[in-house]
Amino acid sequence: MISLENKIILITGASSGIGAACARIFAGTGAKLILAARRLERLQQLVETLHVTSLQIHLLQLDVCDRAAVESAISTLPPSWSDIDILINNAGLSRGLDKLHEANFQDWEEMIDTNVKGLLYLTRYIVPGMVSRGRGHVVNLGSIAGHQTYPGGNVYCATKAAVRAISEGLKQDLLGTPVRVTSVDPGMVETEFSDVRFHGDTERAKKVYQGVTPLTPEDIADVIFFCVTRSPHVNINEVVLMPVDQASATLVNRRT
Predict the structure, then answer these.
(1) Which of 81, 118, 145, 235 could covalently link to 180 via disulfide, CB atoms 3.0 to 4.6 Å apart?
(2) PANTHER family given for it (predicted)?
(3) Domains of the chain (ranges, CATH numbers)
(4) Can you tell me the distance from the alpha carbon of 243 to that of 217, in angstroms, rounded to the nearest whole number?
């Protein structure tokens, strides 16, 4: 098991959900955390709960969709924070559950820009340093939606299929280096995901998890922690995990 003491871990989408859960689990390991998100105030609130020193935390207010902002954020990191050991590409979202021929163009743009292009930007600006230093690990947050398409999922499923392909391609491109690549692909996880998908319709979002015991953000963070702490010669390529109440993207056992 690899020690994370003083390892530098960058987590995108760290202000809530799986990203915040990752921050909590890694804060107790002695790692140094770069927490990135659009909502700086949410990051600051999270830090107050982590019981870490200021030397262990560096906050980035960052929209991963903005390539120039990503380049600037990574290139201007203080020297003591620039040698990133682990990148957790967690920032992502779903918008809408409409039929493709009836969907909102802006929803498509937001999902593609965040889930695919944002992940690519962070990877492109960080991985060269990992290669030159001879160490590193990229963890991409995928989804069961990248394996199985479901009605209304069209473009969201396409973006997560892209994450899966990017992860596989990156692993192949890094062959011959010690840099590891992992895709963690959950099923139903109770986060702000459905609130965001349904544009703040909380009642509709609640029905997604009704009668089901979904995964929690902590469940996913625990799996990510396992993947990044394996021996250096071990690469966990892909993890697909779902709650016991879910058998596929569309088969869910709901208790009344």
Answers:
(1) 235
(2) ALCOHOL DEHYDROGENASE
(3) 8-241 (3.40.50.720)
(4) 12
